[in-house]
Fold:
Amino acid sequence: MKNILFAILIYLTNFSYAYALSITSKVTDEANIPLTGVSITSATEYVTTTNDGTFTLKLNTQDIYQLTIEKKGFYKSIHTFSYSEINDSQGRLTPIVLVKKQPDRVMLAFAGDTMMTRRYYQPYFNHPTLLHTDSLLADSKNIVRAMKPYLEIADFTSVNLETTIAEQAMDSRADKSINFVSHPKTLNALKWAGVDYVTLGNNHIYDFQQQGLEQTFKYLDLSDIAYSGAGLNSKDAIQPHIEHINNQPFAFSGFVGWPGTSKSTEVATQSQGGATLGNSNNLLESLNIATKQQARAIIQYHGSQEYTNEPTLVTEQRLKHVLDSGAALAIAHHPHVTQGIELYNDKLLAYSLGNFIFDQNFSATQHSFILYVWMDNGQFHRAELVPIYLKGYKPTPAVGEHKHQTLQRISALSKRRNTLLTASGAHAVLSKNLQSKVTSSKHHSLSKLETTIINTKKLGWQACPIAVHVNNTPAPYRLGTNLINGSDFENFASFNVKERQWLIENAAHSEIVSSNLNQAMSLTTKPQQPLWFGIQNFRRVYEPDTPVSLSFKIKNNSKLKITAYWQGRKNGQPLFDAYTNSEKQLIQELNIDSNEVFKYVDIEFQSPRRGYKSYRVLLEIQAIPSQQQAHLILDDIALVEWRTAYQKAAKPSDCFTPSTHIGLKAILPNNVEVLSY
Structure:
């Protein structure tokens, strides 16, 4: 009878959203002057701002809210929110700033590494296939569909095309471990979505050597997408693409930061095609060509090390030198993760945009951004960062936890370079007029804490925790970052694509359920058989020998035995051999009594030491006694890698550390106050 009642409870809470929700905010110009008559459009409603720039939308409750903000004489703006983040803010959104159009102003958009091949056709773990040979164009459009409204806004949109374009792989494959080839119809989808230009200056444009390069140029010309950054020889490769935008000439150039390997040279020479080598001589030569044509030079550079927080000194040095020499803007990529942006001598330098359309399945690579840049008569005016989450290889607007994690990381890494990001609606903004140092602290009162681990989204992505007080007394705390994406299960199937983060094996039943409009994972065990639940993919980017906390909350109808393990992939070990054969290392074994309300569980261990390329965490779940079935609900699963030791006062460097969570030394149920800058 208890099992039946628990199942009924799950069924009743899995309802469709039907409650009314009120959204209130304000729209201003860049001088903070309220704008009246601005139209705000959602999927179902339309309102305009009042004389004080405010608006209120009454909406049915749903997973996702996308607002289109428009006023004649201003650039359109699109902002996307989840129900959970609107509910957390009690329906009051951060004010939205519109940028005015004027004759000497242009709006550029940049996105990161882009390809459509490999796991788009053959995904791991029997996940849904995204590209089918008999519906390639429609499938390609579906991959980029959620980003189309964002890309179309700009006067000119660019991505890093990190693939050869051809109908199939060719015999001229370069001698390297990974070779990309994407079908020409994927270019049609990019053009349909608003892409005007691609940079080819990267380490994959020559994956099929001269034959592949010629095919790529052929299909790009047919697609009407402009390009530069590669050529059939070095003289051809260094030529920038000249584009007149709002009657202003711009020169777009692309470069790769290294020549390749001894086995496979990827850069153009006098007698060979390839990408443009981004050494100082070539950067300056490209700048000279732009200057002779009276065009503003936009430099895109593919360099630094993969999966790192900071650019290499070579990247930084080269790009700052070319900016000092007259380039208007510098945009970099290749690390597959985001890095900070810098306002350098009143010019913008973005060190890594991360991935835009890519099939990497480990979580560090799945948060990125579109970068909007406004240039006034060729001079940097303003930038806006639209957070993105690559959900099942598809770029989507980042919402909720994904938005917080994306913007918090970029904000912290930009602060390292004395560059302050502020908020506009769902986005981050860089303005030359808003670079004064923060001097006042904010107080965040938290109550009824049931766990020692606090999600910093309660404080906002801009906040840097500097102290924690309990009953007005300073308390030890530490800062850390969650290594799991989608760990709160909110928006699990939003944007018509399901999460691919979770391993669920040997379950009698599993589904996402809703209770009080919060989503969670419901699982049912099989009699006399353990259920396995955890991270599907190995976590490739992590700090070895570091304190880590596995945290989750659980509600269950009968007693459970839960055993936590970590499983590693050793250096040089084949991926699927590691999934199948790597030993599961015991973290902790727990006996959990039945709970009608959620109970928090925190387990601390140390990440693997040297010798491992990646690892994941798994839970083995068994009913007690084992012959019966058990129903359980899991939520807010986090794998928090701690970045600081316990301390009572922040060090200056803590504000430069990406931190999604605060850890306390004891369970503190009431009267907790966090101070932040």
Observations:
- The radius of gyration is 25 Å.
- Confidence is low (pLDDT under 50) at residues 1-19.
- The longest helix spans residues 400-415.
